[in-house]
Amino acid sequence: DADVTQTPRNRITKTGKRIMLECSQTKGHDRMYWYRQDPGLGLRLIYYSFDVKDINKGEISDGYSVSRQAQAKFSLSLESAIPNQTALYFCATSDFAESGGADTQYFGPGTRLTVL
Amino acid sequence: RKEVEQDPGPFNVPEGATVAFNCTYSNSASQSFFWYRQDCRKEPKLLMSVYSSGNEDGRFTAQLNRASQYISLLIRDSKLSDSATYLCVVNLEGYSTLTFGKGTMLLVSP
Questions:
Q1: Beta strand pairing status for A87-94 and A105-107?
Q2: Which of A29, A65, B42, B99 has CB 3.0 to 4.6 Å from B92, enough for a Cys bridge?
């Protein structure tokens, strides 16, 4: 079984709809992340969480919210979807880097979201 | 603005060729460096971490030059299966989040 899973894998929705993307992990990591990837723009960080009680905004958090329901679960919500939120969304997890800096991140398979 | 810069490519090479990718990063306080590989429409996967002394994993060699804020990846004896996008990844700002370069596409042909 995959260590990091995302549901749904594909979603088509309409402008103004609320949608939730879910991420679960069995790696036992405290740290979880949400990214979006757009052609030509690379991966951009939306939100991240270093433990259940910690939520931080990333580079592009406007229009998104998150919930860390448990160590293993981190959900991303689009309260009112708009077409420019059409993208490939990835969840990732990591451990704590004891030497400082950042530890390796492990990614889920992604959710392809289309907002019409 | 703090960034990770890569040549977008694509790099078109024949099987068996040696190819090198370069990456520059903007924050001298960065501590963690990685190369990730991403196949089309798939998730990024760790290829290798990059250490100050340089490191090698089979046909892949990564080097770090902190003074020049420069990272490289060398692939020897390219295989068709090496065709992918290679992402340079750094923790800018000295924080525990990672910043991804936009990637360099490699196409290996028979």
A1: antiparallel
A2: B99
Residue B5 three-state SS: strand
Contact B68, B23 (CB under 8 A): no
List the structure tokens of B74.
């060398």
Residue of A nearest to B100 (CA): A43
Percent of chain A with pLDDT over 70: 96
Q: Which residue has the tokens 């910043």?
A: B99
Structure tokens at A12: 């088509």
Distance CA B7, CA B10 (A): 8
Structure tokens at A6: 């995302």
Phi and psi, residue A85, nearest 5°:
-95, 5
d(CA B63, nearest CA chain A) in Å: 17
Longest dimension (CA), chain B: 42
Separation between Cα atoms, residue A100 and residue B30, nearest integer Å: 10
- Is B93 in a helix, a strand, or coil? helix
Return the half-sphere exposure (C-beta side, CA atoms, 13 A cut-off) of residue A77.
9
What are B23-80's pLDDT values in tens digits? 999 887 888 899 999 999 899 999 999 988 889 999 999 999 999 999 999 999 999 9
